[in-house]
Amino acid sequence: LSITGDATNTTTTSSAYGVNLGNGTVIQTETGALNITGTGDDVAGGGSGFRTGLYVYSLGAGDTTTIKSTSGAIILNGGATFAAATTNASGLQLQTDTATGVAQVVSQTGDITLIGSSTVETGQTQDGLRFSAPDAANTIMLGYDGTNAYSGNIVLRSNSILQRAQNAGSGSISVRTTG
To answer: 162: Cβ–Cβ under 8 A, 6 or more apart, which residues?
Structure first.
Protein backbone atom coordinates (compact mmCIF):
# COMPACT_ATOMS: atom_id res chain seq x y z
CA LEU A 1 0.00 0.00 0.00
CA SER A 2 1.43 3.39 -0.97
CA ILE A 3 0.15 6.84 -0.04
CA THR A 4 1.77 9.97 -1.48
CA GLY A 5 0.94 13.62 -1.00
CA ASP A 6 2.56 16.94 -1.82
CA ALA A 7 1.87 20.44 -0.53
CA THR A 8 3.18 22.45 -3.46
CA ASN A 9 3.59 26.20 -4.01
CA THR A 10 2.07 27.20 -0.68
CA THR A 11 1.80 30.98 -0.54
CA THR A 12 -0.54 31.77 2.35
CA THR A 13 -0.04 32.09 6.09
CA SER A 14 -2.15 28.99 6.69
CA SER A 15 -0.69 25.57 7.46
CA ALA A 16 0.44 23.18 4.73
CA TYR A 17 0.85 19.40 4.87
CA GLY A 18 1.89 16.93 2.16
CA VAL A 19 0.15 14.06 4.01
CA ASN A 20 -1.88 14.70 7.16
CA LEU A 21 -2.89 11.61 9.23
CA GLY A 22 -4.48 12.10 12.60
CA ASN A 23 -7.13 11.90 15.28
CA GLY A 24 -8.14 8.28 14.94
CA THR A 25 -6.83 7.43 11.47
CA VAL A 26 -5.98 3.73 11.08
CA ILE A 27 -3.87 2.49 8.16
CA GLN A 28 -3.10 -1.21 8.35
CA THR A 29 -1.70 -4.06 6.23
CA GLU A 30 -1.14 -7.69 7.15
CA THR A 31 1.80 -8.77 4.98
CA GLY A 32 2.41 -6.11 2.35
CA ALA A 33 4.73 -3.15 2.65
CA LEU A 34 3.23 0.16 3.73
CA ASN A 35 4.87 3.28 2.25
CA ILE A 36 3.67 6.77 3.10
CA THR A 37 5.47 9.73 1.54
CA GLY A 38 4.66 13.38 2.16
CA THR A 39 6.52 16.33 0.71
CA GLY A 40 6.08 20.01 1.05
CA ASP A 41 7.45 23.06 -0.66
CA ASP A 42 6.44 26.63 -1.12
CA VAL A 43 7.45 29.61 -3.16
CA ALA A 44 10.02 32.16 -2.03
CA GLY A 45 8.24 34.74 0.07
CA GLY A 46 5.43 32.25 0.76
CA GLY A 47 3.42 32.10 3.94
CA SER A 48 4.58 31.61 7.48
CA GLY A 49 2.15 28.96 8.76
CA PHE A 50 2.91 25.51 10.14
CA ARG A 51 4.62 23.42 7.43
CA THR A 52 5.13 19.63 7.39
CA GLY A 53 5.79 17.08 4.65
CA LEU A 54 4.26 14.10 6.56
CA TYR A 55 2.31 14.73 9.78
CA VAL A 56 1.14 11.83 12.02
CA TYR A 57 -0.70 13.08 15.09
CA SER A 58 -3.25 12.65 17.84
CA LEU A 59 -4.48 15.98 19.17
CA GLY A 60 -7.60 14.89 21.06
CA ALA A 61 -7.92 13.10 24.39
CA GLY A 62 -8.24 9.35 23.84
CA ASP A 63 -7.57 9.52 20.09
CA THR A 64 -5.23 6.88 18.68
CA THR A 65 -3.68 7.26 15.24
CA THR A 66 -2.26 3.94 14.04
CA ILE A 67 0.00 2.97 11.16
CA LYS A 68 0.41 -0.79 11.43
CA SER A 69 1.63 -3.87 9.58
CA THR A 70 1.75 -7.38 10.96
CA SER A 71 4.76 -8.50 8.92
CA GLY A 72 5.29 -5.99 6.09
CA ALA A 73 7.82 -3.19 6.19
CA ILE A 74 6.64 0.31 7.08
CA ILE A 75 8.38 3.32 5.56
CA LEU A 76 7.35 6.86 6.49
CA ASN A 77 9.19 9.46 4.43
CA GLY A 78 8.66 13.19 4.93
CA GLY A 79 10.54 15.86 3.03
CA ALA A 80 10.37 19.61 3.46
CA THR A 81 11.82 22.17 1.07
CA PHE A 82 10.03 25.20 2.42
CA ALA A 83 11.42 28.60 1.45
CA ALA A 84 9.20 30.68 3.73
CA ALA A 85 10.45 32.16 6.99
CA THR A 86 8.27 29.97 9.18
CA THR A 87 9.10 28.97 12.73
CA ASN A 88 7.55 25.51 12.26
CA ALA A 89 8.79 23.40 9.35
CA SER A 90 9.58 19.70 9.41
CA GLY A 91 9.87 16.80 7.00
CA LEU A 92 8.24 14.14 9.22
CA GLN A 93 6.51 14.90 12.50
CA LEU A 94 4.88 12.55 15.04
CA GLN A 95 2.87 14.45 17.65
CA THR A 96 0.45 13.93 20.52
CA ASP A 97 -1.02 16.73 22.57
CA THR A 98 -2.75 14.92 25.44
CA ALA A 99 -1.70 12.32 28.01
CA THR A 100 -4.31 9.88 26.64
CA GLY A 101 -3.70 10.42 22.92
CA VAL A 102 -1.45 8.02 21.00
CA ALA A 103 0.38 8.20 17.68
CA GLN A 104 1.80 4.78 16.87
CA VAL A 105 3.79 3.19 14.06
CA VAL A 106 3.81 -0.48 14.98
CA SER A 107 4.41 -3.97 13.61
CA GLN A 108 5.19 -7.50 14.78
CA THR A 109 7.97 -8.54 12.39
CA GLY A 110 8.22 -5.87 9.67
CA ASP A 111 11.00 -3.31 9.73
CA ILE A 112 10.03 0.31 10.44
CA THR A 113 11.91 3.16 8.79
CA LEU A 114 11.26 6.83 9.54
CA ILE A 115 12.93 9.28 7.15
CA GLY A 116 12.75 13.04 7.54
CA SER A 117 14.56 15.82 5.74
CA SER A 118 14.32 19.58 5.75
CA THR A 119 16.19 22.23 3.81
CA VAL A 120 15.33 24.92 6.40
CA GLU A 121 17.09 24.42 9.75
CA THR A 122 17.74 27.86 11.15
CA GLY A 123 15.70 27.38 14.33
CA GLN A 124 14.78 24.74 16.89
CA THR A 125 11.45 23.88 15.27
CA GLN A 126 12.79 23.54 11.74
CA ASP A 127 13.96 19.97 11.40
CA GLY A 128 13.90 16.80 9.33
CA LEU A 129 12.33 14.50 11.95
CA ARG A 130 10.36 15.85 14.90
CA PHE A 131 8.75 14.09 17.86
CA SER A 132 6.39 16.11 20.02
CA ALA A 133 4.82 14.34 23.00
CA PRO A 134 3.32 15.37 26.35
CA ASP A 135 4.80 14.22 29.65
CA ALA A 136 3.01 10.83 29.68
CA ALA A 137 4.21 7.31 28.93
CA ASN A 138 3.68 5.72 25.50
CA THR A 139 2.04 8.63 23.72
CA ILE A 140 4.28 8.05 20.69
CA MET A 141 4.98 4.36 20.07
CA LEU A 142 7.39 2.91 17.50
CA GLY A 143 7.72 -0.86 17.00
CA TYR A 144 5.98 -2.59 19.90
CA ASP A 145 2.23 -1.92 20.09
CA GLY A 146 1.91 -2.66 23.79
CA THR A 147 0.44 -6.14 23.22
CA ASN A 148 2.20 -8.07 20.44
CA ALA A 149 5.93 -8.81 20.54
CA TYR A 150 7.99 -6.93 17.93
CA SER A 151 11.14 -8.36 16.32
CA GLY A 152 11.80 -6.05 13.35
CA ASN A 153 14.39 -3.30 13.06
CA ILE A 154 13.68 0.39 13.59
CA VAL A 155 15.63 2.97 11.58
CA LEU A 156 15.47 6.73 12.17
CA ARG A 157 17.17 8.69 9.37
CA SER A 158 17.29 12.47 9.14
CA ASN A 159 19.54 15.48 8.72
CA SER A 160 18.19 16.65 12.11
CA ILE A 161 16.04 15.11 14.86
CA LEU A 162 14.14 17.06 17.53
CA GLN A 163 12.20 15.88 20.56
CA ARG A 164 10.07 19.01 20.91
CA ALA A 165 8.84 18.97 24.50
CA GLN A 166 10.98 18.84 27.64
CA ASN A 167 9.39 16.23 29.86
CA ALA A 168 10.19 15.58 33.50
CA GLY A 169 8.95 11.98 33.25
CA SER A 170 10.24 9.17 31.06
CA GLY A 171 8.82 7.08 28.28
CA SER A 172 6.66 9.59 26.39
CA ILE A 173 8.37 8.36 23.22
CA SER A 174 8.60 4.58 23.23
CA VAL A 175 10.89 2.89 20.69
CA ARG A 176 10.94 -0.84 21.42
CA THR A 177 12.28 -3.77 19.43
CA THR A 178 14.13 -7.00 19.96
CA GLY A 179 15.47 -6.94 16.34
So the answer is: 90, 124, 125, 127, 129, 130, 131
Total-model pTM: 0.91
Report the C-alpha gap between 113 and 73 in whole angstroms: 8
- Over 60: is that where the pLDDT of 179 sits? no
Q: How far apart are the first and last CA of the chain?
A: 24
Percent of the chain with pLDDT over 70: 85
Alpha-carbon distances, residue 26 vs 65, 106, 170 (angstroms):
6, 11, 26
As a whole number of angstroms, the distance between CA 161 and CA 142 comes to 15
The pLDDT, as a whole number, for residue 41 is 81
Question: CA-based angle 60:64:66, to the nearest 5?
Answer: 140
Query: Which residues, 6+ apart, have CB-to-CB distance to 82 below 8 Å?
Result: 10, 40, 41, 42, 46, 51, 89, 118, 119, 120
